[in-house]
Amino acid sequence: MSKPIALLLGKIDHAGKEWNALSEIAELRQISSGNREQVIADFKAGKHDGVVAIYRTFDSVNITGRFDTPLIESLPTTLRSISHNGAGYDQIDVSACTARSISVSNTPVAVDAATADVAMMLLLGALRRSWIPESSLRAGNWRGNMQLGHDPEGKVLGILGMGGIGSALAKRAKAFEMRVVYHNRRRLDEGREDRAKYVGFEELLRTSDVISVHLPLSQATKGIVGKKEFEMMKNGVVLINTARGAIVDEEALVEALRVGKVFSAGLDVYGNEPEVHPELVRNENVVLLPHIGTATFETQYKMEVLVVRNVRNSIENGELVTPVPEQART
């Protein structure tokens, strides 16, 4: 009896041993190069018939493009699951997958600590506007035109999206004696709030000294922080975004920085990656990182192992370990 087929899209860098161990239960295949047109043509021609599970890396979007309806409709009828390596999964049309009875998983929890660490680093850097003295020092100009920054102690941190990453940031911020408020679609159970205060969206905008974005990107959240929302914020607010760039209207952010409404921003994500808005690059009050929230050896390994677990569980038990919320509710 032939084994089911598991297909890897992209490359595994850290959990190769775990992936190769799946050969006990599945035939392993890989697509590590090519383009969208060729991939879709190969699927339609039946080259990958028999595939029951796909391991999808974040960077495989450069090969396949988004997992949208045209690509999903070309997938083998045998396919049961797509295991995505990443907490954010906006590259995948989950509704189209659900219509085909294809389950989708992501990697929550595994990314929480590393991404929260980067958010905290950006928060502290933005409060001090650290790029100004750093760039001056590297240019041989000691502190340059450095001005005074702010302490985190006593500041109100508004967390927009209190999931795993937001909760991990709240824990870190409390060590710096910040007061934490948060907004979700639904309030957390009291035992999970850990002294954070639940507030409405507008109250969070109006009362926070620092706002950190931790929402998933969807049609409902795209541009949710825009011109109107910046106008509601305190003068001199600090904005942090380690979620997805498109959640914040970048033109509105650029203007808010220009007029001084926003004191500083710390960004790890952008609306049109890898391109970055030129006004953000030019603005010394912005601390910029190139989407490195999960870029540690330990976290990348944990993420890859979790994806392999999802693939294995899908093949052996017909279920995913970490299904995306839209499907977990169905």
Mass-distribution shape: elongated
Number of helices: 15
Mean pLDDT: 96
Q: Taking Cα atoms only, what radius of gyration do you get, to the nearest Å?
A: 22 Å
Low-confidence stretches: none
Helix content: 25-40%
Topology (elements, then pairings):
Elements: E1 5-9, H1 16-21, E2 27-31, H2 36-44, E3 51-56, H3 61-64, H4 69-74, E4 81-84, H5 94-99, E5 103-105, H6 112-128, H7 131-138, E6 156-160, H8 164-175, E7 179-183, H9 190-193, E8 197-198, H10 201-207, E9 210-213, H11 227-232, E10 237-241, H12 250-258, E11 262-267, H13 278-282, E12 286-288, H14 297-317, H15 325-328
Parallel strand pairs: 1-2, 1-3, 3-4, 4-5, 6-7, 6-9, 7-8, 9-10, 10-11, 11-12
Structural overview:
There is one protein chain. With 330 residues, the chain is α/β, with parallel strands linked by helices. Helix content is 38%, strand content 16%. The protein contains 15 helices and twelve strands. It has a seven-stranded parallel β-sheet with strand order 8-7-6-9-10-11-12, with helices on both faces. Strands 2-1-3-4-5 form a five-stranded parallel β-sheet. Helix 13 (278-282) links the parallel strand 11 and strand 12 (286-288). Helix 6 crosses helix 8 (164-175). The longest helix is centred in the last third of the chain and has 21 residues, at 297-317. The two termini are 33 Å apart. 41% of the residues are buried.
